[in-house]
């Protein structure tokens, strides 16, 4: 899941707590060109306030206008944008087709509890499946996700699997780390920076980036990593980097990497192998030197190489296929 979807559910929870009924939209399928993938979410109020995205903007405006005109019934339904969908919008500017699940949640305890469970799932605490009965207001949470596709649509119900939002955990501030944080936020990652050094954290502030002033190894040991987490150590400080790597390899993080030259990286891996008594399988999980070989020299270029490699691994692309 994308970090924007985490923001959507956080906003939905806030509105529900304030006594507002909310409309939750989820992209179920796309055909042709589409800027957001199935599973993307948007939450809205009839006043036109909203959070999230379903497309590049061509759908949201029309949806909010229809919502304001009370065109949607208070029941779960699937709507279509593009050919065969709402008239007169038979063709989207991008040429694609978008199927969207639209649900209305009352500001009651059941809705707030449902939203809280989904937030837990996006934060990596569990994985769940939403079971939505169409043409009704019935929605249930299932915890058995073993045989469930990410999204399945049948004649009378929809099932949507909800898992952790992609997270980038940056161990320690540095010029490269700051560029990585910016790139990752733009790519939709939940970005967490851990650094216990007040002389560096005092003036750090970046939209969409959470700063936690603890040692990154401590944050990881307290459950800061899940299977959708990438961990990067970018400081050249072994007091931060080494401990972070030793803790990270005990987690299901999908990417673990550390910045450094080939020689320094080899020395680091041998050092943490010896100190933490790591086996080959654990050590081989660490990308060091980190990033794709783009000939990077500046902090921005190095950060680009790092994030490119993380996206490569996230998307299941082997280096030889590049």
Automatic annotation (TrEMBL):
Span of the signal peptide? none
Domain XdhC- CoxI span(s) in chain numbering: 15-82
Question: Domain XdhC Rossmann, which positions?
Answer: 168-310
Which InterPro entries does the entry link to?
A: MoCofactor_Util/Proc, NAD(P)-bd_dom_sf, XdhC_CoxI, XdhC_Rossmann_dom
Superkingdom of the source?
Bacteria
- Give the protein's recorded name: Xanthine dehydrogenase
